[in-house]
Amino acid sequence: GQIVYSIAEETERGAFVGNIAKDLGIDAATLSARKFRMITGSSKQYFNINASTGALSVNEPIDREQLCELKSVCLLNYELVLENPLELYRMEFKVLDVNDNSPSFPLSEYHISVPEFLSPGARFTLPNAQDLDEGANSVQNYTLSPDEHFHLEMQIRGDGSKYPELVLKKALDREQQATHRLVLTAKDGGNPPKSGEVPVIVTVLDTNDNAPEFEHSVYRASILENSPSGTLVVQVHATDLDEGPNGEIRYSFSNTTSADLQRMFLIHPHTGEVTVNGVLAVQRPLLEMLIEARDNGAFGMSSTAKLLVEITDVNNHGPEITITSLSSPIPEDAVPGTVIALLSILDKDPGENGKVTCQIPDNLPFQLKPSLQNYYSLVTSEGLDRELISEYNITITATDLGSPPITTQKTVWVQISDVNDNPPVFSADAFDVFVEENNPLGAFIYQVSASDPDIGENGRVSYMLRNSTVAGSALTSFLSVNLANGSIYAKRAFDFEQLRSFYFQVEAKDNGSPALSAAITVNVYISDQNDNAPAILYPTSQNGSLAVEVVPRLADEDYLVTKVVADDEDNAQNAWLSYHLAHASDSTLFQLSPHTGELRTTRSMRSTDFLKHKVVVVVRDHGDPPLSSTVTVGILLADTLPQALPDFDDSGEPPPLLNATNIYLIISLACVSFVFAVFLLFLAVVRL
Asked: What is the CB neighbour count within 10 angstroms for residue 43?
């Protein structure tokens, strides 16, 4: 939208201009919340907006002449920017002129030399007054103080501009009056009118009665704004009917030509060539100068001509890119079409040289959309993913349509903020964990780890056990998990013989809102330890008595006496059993198979063999270290089963001659005898 206000210059501070909220249809109560701001290219902020009412008031009085110089229409352009949503309104303030400047003349006084012999009707150019006001408030008419020899007439140049001339209405007599003092008054059309005056001193001369005359009253020329110093603009020419020095003409700029223009251009005093002097640092497309031609008479006469120089624009200004508003960072879930930045692109060159095209690289998820005049909106064109690209350096390229074109680039840094759009991810679908039984309480079991490409709280992962049961008990009675790092610990010792394997699920959850989670299955396999000795199932003893096997007295060789049967609750090599004959009353009579546990005779029985035998069998597993169990078997040689089993404490073997007790008695007797002999020897020695 756009709205236009008109305001008189010099309006006092605080004066009401309008209600911007009402005029634009905006709710005034939302101005502050929507972060309104006024943007202008002016160096001063001339207006204020009341954030609560929307009232637009004067912040600083405007001097139209200082702001717009000689422009006929003085405009101030503002942009009102509102956010949430982003809106842009153009405001144009037309500054109306008031009659606050009086006409003034460039010099404090003017001197005119008039030959006395001139006839009535002779004309002399008078200076133009300058009034910074415009329109009716500018200079409208001139008056001359009453004098019997002169009166004032207004003349019109070829371009329609007016200038005053002093007209001789009565012949002069230098001998009677050599100097005439006149007052030239300029009045504007204001209400009330203002005026300015300057003394005009007329000196009566005796010579040189012809003034130079230009070929044209107005000269026109056109040059490029980047023309180098010394470039010829135009050559003026004037003629003087006088002869000799009175007909020799010198050219110069009139005193009414501004000092700035006199520095930009040079005029050759003899040839009338006007050339460029330095840089044409002007913003106006048309320059106006007055050239004076004066002869070299003793009392030189002069005339003026107007020179209009049109400055042809050259594409010497590049586009200017201004970031008016920027929203960064933006969330990665921003929908396509979200406005990120508002750009102002301006080229100071006029015409085609000031028209600009703007673009950004094609491989970005953004695009530029034209907004108001000279404004573009930078918006998203597709979805964003911070995990792929977390920031963008967007190069904006603006190129004008000049020849050759000028290109300007500006980089906008846009950061992408994280949204919790990624759940935690485990490195595998399941984990297999092997744990030895009889583990200590609090033993470390395993550490699960999940990654989350989000950042901050959205990427901070915590771990927990999902509710389940193991062997009829709650999972939490078996395991615990560290909330922060996923380390799993045992809360009890595992027993391979009771529980060989189980599985459970660990859930990883991020701290986003809403939180996202994932779960992993952990299979736990309990490894066996050799913690169980072999259990002998057969033969078994009852009530502390030996297991007795009856063998026929005349049993043949390789007769199966018995088979030792054992079991081990451990697994694998911890349960591999081997059988060994630890003791036998007659080692030549029996043999034991190490793998099957079968106890067999090594030869046929003889009538001379003892009737009772005792065998000790050791059953050993293959664990590390190995565990073993023993069983003692009593063997009775009999053809029939006796009614009462004999006592196998005495196996029927002859007692050994030297057993442990006998050895101890022999050693004791020898020691006593030795001590007694030594004592007797001692007594004998003493006696001797």
From this structure: 5
User: The whole model's pTM is what?
Assistant: 0.52
d(CA 321, CA 343): 7
Residues 61, 10 contacting (CB under 8 angstroms): yes
SS3 264: helix
- Helix, coil or strand: residue 214: strand
Give, for 687, the enclosing helix (H) or strand (E): helix 660-687
User: How many CB atoms lie under 10 A from the CB of residue 350?
Assistant: 11
Fold of 213-312: Immunoglobulin-like (2.60.40)
Across the range 667-673, mean pLDDT stands at 88
- Assess whether pLDDT exceeds 80 at residue 660: no
pLDDT per residue as tens digits for the range 307-326: 999 888 777 788 899 888 88
The highest-confidence range among 32-36, 401-405, 560-564, 584-588, by mean pLDDT, is 560-564
What are the boundaries of each domain within the chain?
2-96, 110-205, 213-312, 320-417, 425-527, 535-637
CATH code for the structural domain at 535-637:
2.60.40.60
Q: Is 320-417 assigned to CATH 2.60.40.60?
A: yes
Contact 56, 3 (CB under 8 A): no
Average pLDDT in the chain: 86
Cis before 404 (ω within 30)? yes
Taking the C-alpha atoms of residue 410 and residue 158, their distance in angstroms, rounded to an integer, is: 50
User: What local confidence, expressed as pLDDT, does residue 652 receive?
Assistant: 46
Number of other CB atoms surrounding residue 267 within 10 Å: 24
CATH number for the segment(s) 2-96: 2.60.40.60
What class does CATH assign to 425-527? mainly beta
Question: Is a pLDDT exceeding 90 seen at residue 301?
Answer: no
- Report the 10 Å Cβ neighbour count for 144: 18
Conformational region of residue 665, where left means phi above 0, alpha means psi within -120 to 50, and beta covers everything else: alpha
Cβ 306 vs Cβ 289: under 8 Å? yes
Residue 136 has φ and ψ, to the nearest 5°, of: -65, -20
CA distances in angstroms from 41 to 45, 46, 66, 79, 346, listed in the order given: 10, 11, 15, 10, 11
pLDDT at residue 657 tops 70: no
CB-based contact 246:207 (threshold 8 Å): yes
Element (H or E) spanning 495, and its range?
none
Are 264 and 317 in contact by the 8 Å Cβ rule? The answer is: no
Q: Are strands 218-224 and 37-40 parallel, antiparallel or unpaired?
A: unpaired
Q: Which class is domain 110-205?
A: mainly beta
Measure the CA–CA gap between 221 and 236, rounded to whole angstroms: 11
Distance, in Å, from the CA atom of 347 to the CA atom of 356, rounded to the nearest integer, reads: 7
455: CB partners within 8 A, 6+ apart: 386, 418
Looking at the predicted structure, is the pLDDT value of residue 382 above 60? yes
CA distances to 435, 505, 516, 518, 522 from 449, in Å = 19, 13, 15, 11, 12
Higher pLDDT, 126 or 587: 126
Same topology, domains 110-205 and 213-312? Answer is: yes
The two structure tokens encoding residue 37: 């701001």
Give which of 366, 302, 368 is closest to 114, Cα–Cα. 302
